[in-house]
From TrEMBL:
This is Polysaccharide biosynthesis protein C-terminal domain-containing protein. Coiled coil: none annotated. The keyword Membrane applies. GO terms for cellular component: plasma membrane. The keyword Transmembrane applies. PANTHER family: O-ANTIGEN TRANSPORTER-RELATED, PST FAMILY PREDICTED COLANIC ACID TRANSPORTER. Pfam families: Polysacc_synt.
Length: 419
């Protein structure tokens, strides 16, 4: 069985994306470690709120476009390339429109959010910078999703690594020149996605995409699929970051910085999930019957299980390294890190189930209920746990939420197959 798994195209493609993700995640971790050490817990807490807002609004403004892009471009690349180009152009235009709307909304609301929601007036300028970065995040995700649809996994990895490497070098230079602060580190963060997007335009058949016509005729087909994706994506995006916002409202900026440090250390796991989904999504979309899907599903699930076991073995090492890398000021990040890391391993283990429901059964609407349940857990249980146990309570709540996110679609899938 394991020999068959090792000989599959999925495993070979996964090797590329996993290696690329580990390098990319390592660079990202180093970026945040340097920021945390240079800025200190309080300032790093403010930066965490700004970056969380940027990513949250970008996820909402995507309105399911990335998933729809992968679904329809992958399905049409072989038999109808012109239609695939139209879907790419339509997705790009949607992202440009939502980028402008999102920028205006957050830029204008920044003073209100900083003063009356977070009760931290110093956040105003940081939130305005975040508004500028939303467009870059949306365009960069268009580029990486397009590479995913074309199954250009090596280039997907290279673009991510290259942009993160430049960002890391930039932080080193600013730190060396002793001019690193919250503002210029945030500017560096938001500028690199734009750069990565423009590089990708030279890789994709950009001319053919731009020259395609009547792309809005496909809007109904795209949005019919995207609407349920967008609904659960928006709810999931809010619930995935609600723990950070609750800590921002209920705790001090120092506590936010502690939790932000623990959170950033586990972010390589969602990137790994995305990398594996990068390979799996087109596969699940192409299967014609349950037999094909289940054969692939079993091999993929065993592969993911092996990665989870390896992840568990790294926990003791990580516990030792946290105060060494971040400094003694972040000693309190160890316990929340453990719970958050286990939560991300559960998330990793869920990939085959999630991809089969979304791409094989074409039922993204199932995740609307998953997202609603997760939001209720993070909002309700999270408020109680954070109020009583601080950042540790927040991390335990995240673990409970990821377990729910795995069990609900698993039960749905089992019932569906039995019927």
């Amino acid at each position: 069985m394991f020999r068959k798994i090792l000989n599959t195209a999925t495993f070979r493609q996964s090797q590329i994306t996993i290696l690329g993700t580990l390098i990319n995640g390592g660079l990202g971790a180093l970026f945040y470690i340097l920021l945390a050490r240079f800025l200190g817990p309080a300032n790093f807490g403010l930066l965490t709120i700004a970056l969380t807002t940027l990513v949250l609004i970008a996820d909402i403004a995507d309105i399911g476009t990335n998933t729809g892009l992968v679904r329809f471009v992958s399905a049409n690349l072989v038999n109808n390339k012109e239609k695939a180009y139209k879907f790419l152009k339509l997705a790009l235009e949607v992202k440009l429109i939502t980028s402008v709307i999102s920028f205006l909304a957050i830029f204008l609301l920044a003073p209100f959010l900083a003063t009356y929601v977070f009760h931290k007036v110093e956040l105003t300028i940081l939130l305005k910078f975040s508004a500028l970065g939303i467009g870059g995040a949306l365009l960069f995700s268009f580029a990486t999703s397009a590479l995913q649809a074309y199954q250009k996994y090596f280039l997907w990895s290279a673009i991510n690594i290259f942009t993160n490497a430049i960002r890391f070098v930039g932080i080193l230079i600013l730190g060396y020149l002793v001019i690193l602060n919250i503002e210029n580190s945030l500017i560096l963060y938001i500028s690199l996605p734009f750069f990565g997007f423009f590089i990708t335009l030279f890789i994709l058949p950009t001319k053919k995409i731009i020259q395609s016509r009547d792309e809005f005729n496909l809007a109904k087909e795209l949005f019919k699929y995207n609407i349920p994706v967008a609904i659960f994506t928006i709810i999931a995006a809010v619930s995935a970051r609600l723990d950070t916002y609750l800590t921002a409202v209920l705790l001090s900026t120092k506590d936010i910085g502690i939790y932000g440090a623990a959170n950033q250390l586990v972010q390589v796991m969602p990137q790994l999930v995305s990398a594996l989904g990068l390979v799996a999504a087109p596969k699940f979309s192409s299967f014609q019957n349950n037999s094909q899907m289940l054969t692939y599903f079993r091999k993929f699930q065993l592969f993911v299980l092996g990665l989870c076991i390896l992840g568990i073995l790294t926990i003791p090492i990580s516990i030792y390294l946290i105060p060494v890398l971040f400094g003694q000021a972040y000693q309190e990040a160890v316990t929340p890190f453990i719970f958050l890391f286990i939560a991300m391993l559960v998330f990793l283990f869920s990939i085959p189930v999630h991809n089969s429901v979304i791409f094989y059964f074409s039922r993204p609407d199932v995740f609307i209920w998953v997202a609603i349940g997760h939001l209720a857990i993070i909002g309700g249980l999270g408020y109680i746990m954070i109020s009583n146990y601080g950042v540790v309570g927040a991390s335990i709540t995240v673990l409970v939420g990821t377990i729910f996110n795995f069990l609900y679609p698993l039960i749905w899938m089992v019932i569906k197959l039995k019927r």
